[in-house]
Design brief:
The chain has helices at 2-5, 58-68, 78-94, 102-118, 123-126, 137-167, 189-202, 204-207, 218-228, 247-262, and strands spanning 184-186, 234-236, 267-271, 277-280. It is mostly helical. The chain folds into 2 domains: 2-23 and 43-144, no CATH class; 173-280, no CATH class. It has a 4-stranded antiparallel beta sheet, covered by helices on one side. β3 and β4 (277-280) form a beta hairpin. α2 packs across α6 (137-167), α3 (78-94) packs antiparallel against α4 (102-118) and α9 (218-228) crosses α10. The model is unreliable at 1-15, 23-42, 44-48 and 164-172 (pLDDT under 50).
Length: 295
Amino acid sequence: MSEENDKPVDAADEPAAPEEPRPVEGAAPPERVTVPEGMESVLPEDAPQILLPLFEGPLDLLLYLIKREKIDIHDIPIAPITRQYMDYLAVMQELNLDVAGEFMVMAATLIHIKSKMLVPIEPTEAEGEEEYVDPREELVRRLLEFQRYKDAAGVLHQQAQIRAATWTRPDTVLPTFDDAGEEMLEAGLYDLIAAFKELLERRKALIAHDVESEGPPVEQRMEELLATIREGESLEFLELFASLETKAEMIVTFLALLELIRLKRVRVYQRGMFGPIRVFRPVGPPAEGALPTAP
């Protein structure tokens, strides 16, 4: 999400992007990830699809899961990572996020690797007569390459921010963080999706049997969120959903929050990596102008 919130680095300064996910021979990409029971989408069929920022692709999601679970990238447990990846895709589809194409190719790749690892090792390979090739080897290589690319792009982005802060006067002033002695990090898209996924799972028993109608328009909910978070103040992410009773309302609220972040009307931070998320409303004029109006 930080790539959306800050001034982008010049394209000429950015490192070359790593290769895109590609289909695996013998593994057809699934058309749709099955949404778990009780988490079916309540959005209308004509709801607009939300495009993901540059870095928020399948490799970024895998790296997020690996770091979150403190997994050795050179020894990835494919079965649990595949299950978690598919769970996240189900939630993203429910939110009408753009998870087609390369996300489905990666899903097929993980399933293919998982199936190959279930095949017993040939006796010739076990005896050392033939070199054993780990089915995860190519995936690990691509993840390491992507991590290096992200690290390099992050350094360039930080340098651009320093230059901008040196020679320009910011249009807005971010609210002061409360002094708790912890580092505040800007939260990314997958941090938000993880928090929302946990929220849905905790309240699943309450909403699973609820016959829901569509939630309020996203534009209306954006106005309500801005009225809730005053300039220069912040709220815990979960507080935005505390008074909501239906899943439709929660989904619309989450989409409204994503749109406010895109418009730079709010910013999201967390206490340390994977910590609780707070939503801040900057002081000053909005960076992207007026909110969209409901039709």
